[in-house]
């Protein structure tokens, strides 16, 4: 309806309305641009569909036919009618229905020039009459229209139209007749016409007449139950676009008017116009920049990122939208399918898209979409297969994660989980899928396009670095599972191969314009504008300053620990990175690695020049929880002498460490790395170690009191035993130290009350055999009891 | 200065994004800034830490009956206050390492 109105107002040439009309025109234009054809409701669409058909037929009729001419004369009639009291009859009255088929077309147009000039003089005051008579015409035409029916078109050649719509012709009479009384007895509805609106004087003819027309038509439809609005509209509009513009006609301007009418009257615009525009929209390239730094500009694309994917059925679209083209203004609507059309299209196209909603996922970094990776060529090796297909019908609606990029473990876990859950509620969700009104709102292409944009931001040149947690987590899980299950199950050993984008080195060069004064800012997504023109100065002595500032010992320790951690992480990653770097860079990497390791070692020393691992430093580090963790991770990476030294230091200072660990109780983190180190020790070192552990008087007791201490002791003993039993030539027994030490240990073990003997983390199995060498049976049994007891009482 | 910040911001996002990715499929409780707590299975997460939960239920007293019929939801990342996780699904050491790495990267 609105559209119709705007069409009407657009075509008016009245000055007073021009401003208003233009605004509304623009608004409508914007509306269409924004919302497309779909913003208007269905009725209108259907009407336009019919219009299209109507117009086709209308075109066939030569010269817009009688109907057009008849209506074209309408406003005049209405005008004359209204002011009938005042105006004199201009034309000779003719009684009855005199079909004037031949006269009417000229009446419509040329008559507008020939016969109507006299009425022109009285045009303004006659406007109301015109409107009224127009309205009347349509009203009178109602029964005729109803009789004719929707399908039949009142646009045939003049002759036939005359027969089908006698009423209309009859109404033409008033145009000739001028007198009111002649009409009423022909048209019983006349009394219903209100003379009201027009009595106020010469209103702007186009608007009033149209409004009146509408108003009256509406009133006209009330009694006419059988006439549906469509038919009214049809026929009124079927009279050609001329009916749309009664206002225009009222002006009676000859050649410009006629030309306009003819223009307006033209039905379809050629659809190619729209096609071109559609193509234009999607292929428009952003204007090239004056200068584009490498980093500063996103990659120039033929199709800019922001454009939606092209609609696949553009020709279908054109047919549908052809009514739109018929507007007097160029079609402005882009290639957008209306909601309904699209839904129809897609429902036919796409079969069963269960829960298209969660489909395009928020998930994986690096993207799991094949089309996306068509661009930057990555190794596609990871293609884990398409996302899990819909399970058996029981599983509806299956929650579809996009799992193409997940680690195989992860994916397996997810599917397992979903299966176990889906079985429970499969039945209830069965019919949900079939009735989902929100499915198929987007085509697959569109979904992929949206996700493509998202994924672009996640493109990673170094997935291991950017996605550190995820990658490592699943690696660890893999290792764990490998350990737990038997290796015969090959499925668990699939590796995750992530797609990688080739790393492009960008050196940023600020944009410079020749001959410009100062720095001009050219900002883009990738380089936002510079807020501060600050120069970065590396201050090498800053660290030292900071260290001096750090007065809190603990803070200092923590700081040291953190520094070491970063070194440690670098060292840890060395192997992985080594594999990845190309040949030529490998030497540099090895160098770096060496430096890192050196630094790590040196950090353990107290003084730079001191070659040995400093006890104090170690203890200091280990006084914090983080430090213990650090050392435990660091040990494997240290060269063996240093590692041994560290272990020695630990053993030596165990009581202190144990005391400091009372709160955290995390010394046991050290067990594993320490045991590894112990196993690599030589016999003499081992003996030394045991000696250190025993230390001064009373140390052993505290050692035994601590879980870690006990475990450490056991480890040492077990190692010694292993050495002895495996290698008969071992030098362990060369000097008596070992034996003595073991003796003292056993003595201590026996004497210490069980309560203060802390259960170890584990008891090596060969301890018994060890003890059997050194103690008699009785004591052995005692020891056995004690140790077993302690193991049990854990 | 400013340009490197944009790269750094990306790094910060990556840490938790990476972290949440490993939790996909686990049950979590998301507490929002409007005090609504939602328990559900983490379906997916994106770089903005928007969260999709499936099979949700409102924890605590059902003060929010309008959520009764909702099965799945999408939560914008910026409205999340807390995400409660199962402790055994998190490797704290690894998380610490990842954070250290991020810090190192940011410094560069």
Characteristic key phrases:
heterodimer, A: 794 residues, disordered N terminus, disordered C terminus, B: 108 residues, alpha+beta, SH3 type barrels, 5-stranded antiparallel beta sheet
Q: Overall mean pLDDT score of chain A?
A: 61
Uncertain parts of chain B: 1-9
Average pLDDT confidence of chain B is 83
Q: Quick one: biggest sheet of chain A?
A: none
Just give the CATH class of chain B. Answer: Mainly Beta
Compute the number of helices of chain B.
2
Q: Largest inter-chain interface? A: A-B, 46 and 36 residues
**How many strands in all of chain B?**
5
Structural class by helix and strand composition of chain A? mainly alpha
Identify the overall geometry of chain A: elongated
Uncertain segments of chain A: 1-19, 63-125, 146-208, 220-253, 266-284, 289-297, 312-341, 345-397, 426-430, 790-794
Helix-residue proportion of chain A: 55-70%
Radius of gyration of chain B: 16 Å
Overall 3D form of chain B: elongated
How many independent structural domains of chain B? 1
User: CATH fold name of chain B, please?
Assistant: SH3 type barrels
Q: CA-to-CA gap between the ends of chain A?
A: 87 Å
First CA to last CA of chain B: what distance?
11 Å
The tally of beta strands of chain A, per DSSP, is 0
What is the strand content of chain B? 25-35%
How much beta of chain A, percentage-wise?
Answer: under 5%
Biased composition (Pro residues) (chain A): 193-205, 374-396
GO molecular function, one term (chain A): RNA binding
Family (chain A): Belongs to the PAT1 family.
Domain mRNA decay factor PAT1 (chain A): 513-657
């Amino acid at each position: 309806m609105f559209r119709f109105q705007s069409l009407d107002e657009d075509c008016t040439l009245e000055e007073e309305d021009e401003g208003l009309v233009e605004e509304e025109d623009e608004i409508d234009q914007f509306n269409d641009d924004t919302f497309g054809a779909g913003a208007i409701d269905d009725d209108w669409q259907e009407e336009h569909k019919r219009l299209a058909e109507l117009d086709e037929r209308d075109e066939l009729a030569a010269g817009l036919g009688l109907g057009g001419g008849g209506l074209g004369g309408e406003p005049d009639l209405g005008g004359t009618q209204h002011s009938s009291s005042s105006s004199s009859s201009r034309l000779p009255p003719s009684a009855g229905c005199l079909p004037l088929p031949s006269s009417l077309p000229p009446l419509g147009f040329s008559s507008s020039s020939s016969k109507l000039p006299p009425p022109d003089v009285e045009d303004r005051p006659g406007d109301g009459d015109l409107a009224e008579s127009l309205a009347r015409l349509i009203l009178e035409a109602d029964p005729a229209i109803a009789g004719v029916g929707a399908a039949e078109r009142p646009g045939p050649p003049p002759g036939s139209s005359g027969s089908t719509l006698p009423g209309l012709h009859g109404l033409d009479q008033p145009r000739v007749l001028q007198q009111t009384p002649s009409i009423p007895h022909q048209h019983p509805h006349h009394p219903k016409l209100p003379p009201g609106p027009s009595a106020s004087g010469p209103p702007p003819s186009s608007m009033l007449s149209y409004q009146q027309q509408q108003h009256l038509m509406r009133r006209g439809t009330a009694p006419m139950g059988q006439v549906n609005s469509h038919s009214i509209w049809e026929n009124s509009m079927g009279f050609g676009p001329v009916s749309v513009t009664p206002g225009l006609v009222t002006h009676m301007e000859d050649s410009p008017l006629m030309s306009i009418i003819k223009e307006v009257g033209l039905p379809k615009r050629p659809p190619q116009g729209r096609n071109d525009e559609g193509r234009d929209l999607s292929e428009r390239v952003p204007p090239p920049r004056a200068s584009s730094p490498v980093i500063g500009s996103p990659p120039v694309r033929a199709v800019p990122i922001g454009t939606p994917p092209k609609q696949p059925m553009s020709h279908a679209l054109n047919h549908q939208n052809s009514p739109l083209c018929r507007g007097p203004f160029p079609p402005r609507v882009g290639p957008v399918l209306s909601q309904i059309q699209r839904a129809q299209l897609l429902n036919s196209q796409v079969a069963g898209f269960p829960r298209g909603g969660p489909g395009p996922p928020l998930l994986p970094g690096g993207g799991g979409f094949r089309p996306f990776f068509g661009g930057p060529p990555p190794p596609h090796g990871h293609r884990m297969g398409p996302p899990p297909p819909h399970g058996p019908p029981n599983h509806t609606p299956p929650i579809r994660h996009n799992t193409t990029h997940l680690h195989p473990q992860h994916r397996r876990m997810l599917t397992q989980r979903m299966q176990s859950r889906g079985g429970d509620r499969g039945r209830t969700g069965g019919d949900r899928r079939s009735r989902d009104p929100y499915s198929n709102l987007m085509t697959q292409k569109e979904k992929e396009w949206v996700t493509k944009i998202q994924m672009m931001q996640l493109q990673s040149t170094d997935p291991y670095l950017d996605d550190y947690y995820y990658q490592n987590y699943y690696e660890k899980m893999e290792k764990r599972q490998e350990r737990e299950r038997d290796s015969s199950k090959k499925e668990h050993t699939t590796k995750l191969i992530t797609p990688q984008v080739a790393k492009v080195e960008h050196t940023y060069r600020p944009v410079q314009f020749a001959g410009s004064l100062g720095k001009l800012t050219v900002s883009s997504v990738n380089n936002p504008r510079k807020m501060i023109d600050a120069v970065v100065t590396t201050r090498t002595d800053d660290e030292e300053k900071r260290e001096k500032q750090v007065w809190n010992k603990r803070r200092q320790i923590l700081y040291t620990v953190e520094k070491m951690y970063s070194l440690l992480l670098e060292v840890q990653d060395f192997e992985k990175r080594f594999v990845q770097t190309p040949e030529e860079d490998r030497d540099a990497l090895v160098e770096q690695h060496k430096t890192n390791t050196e630094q790590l070692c040196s950090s353990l020393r107290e003084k730079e020049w001191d070659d040995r691992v400093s006890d104090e430093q170690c203890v200091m580090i280990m006084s914090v929880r983080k430090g213990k963790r650090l050392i435990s991770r660091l040990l494997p990476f240290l060269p063996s002498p240093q590692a041994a030294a560290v272990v020695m230091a630990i053993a030596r200072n165990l009581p202190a460490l144990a005391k400091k660990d009372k709160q955290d109780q995390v010394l046991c983190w050290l067990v594993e790395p320490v045991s590894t180190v112990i196993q690599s020790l030589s016999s003499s070192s081992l003996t030394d170690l045991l000696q250190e552990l025993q230390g001064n008087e009373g140390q052993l007791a505290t050692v035994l009191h601590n879980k870690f201490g006990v475990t450490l002791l056991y480890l040492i003993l077990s190692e010694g035993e292993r050495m002895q039993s495996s290698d008969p030539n071992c030098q362990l027994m060369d000097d008596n130290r070992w034996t003595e030490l073991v003796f003292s240990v056993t003595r201590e073990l026996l004497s210490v009350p069980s309560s203060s003997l802390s259960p170890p983390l584990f008891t090596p199995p060969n301890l018994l055999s060890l003890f059997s060498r050194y103690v008699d049976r009785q004591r052995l049994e005692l020891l056995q009891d004690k140790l077993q007891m302690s193991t049990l009482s854990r | 200065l400013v340009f490197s910040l944009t790269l750094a911001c990306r790094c910060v996002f990556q840490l938790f994004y990476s972290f949440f990715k490993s939790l996909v499929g686990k049950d979590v409780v998301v507490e929002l800034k409007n005090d609504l707590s939602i328990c559900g299975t983490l379906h997916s997460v994106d770089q903005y830490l928007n969260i999709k939960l499936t099979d949700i239920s409102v924890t605590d007293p059902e003060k929010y009956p309008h959520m009764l019929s909702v099965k799945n939801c999408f939560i914008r990342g910026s409205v999340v206050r807390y995400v409660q996780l199962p402790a055994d699904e998190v490797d704290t050491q690894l998380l610490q390492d990842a954070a250290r790495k991020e810090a190192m990267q940011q410094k560069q």
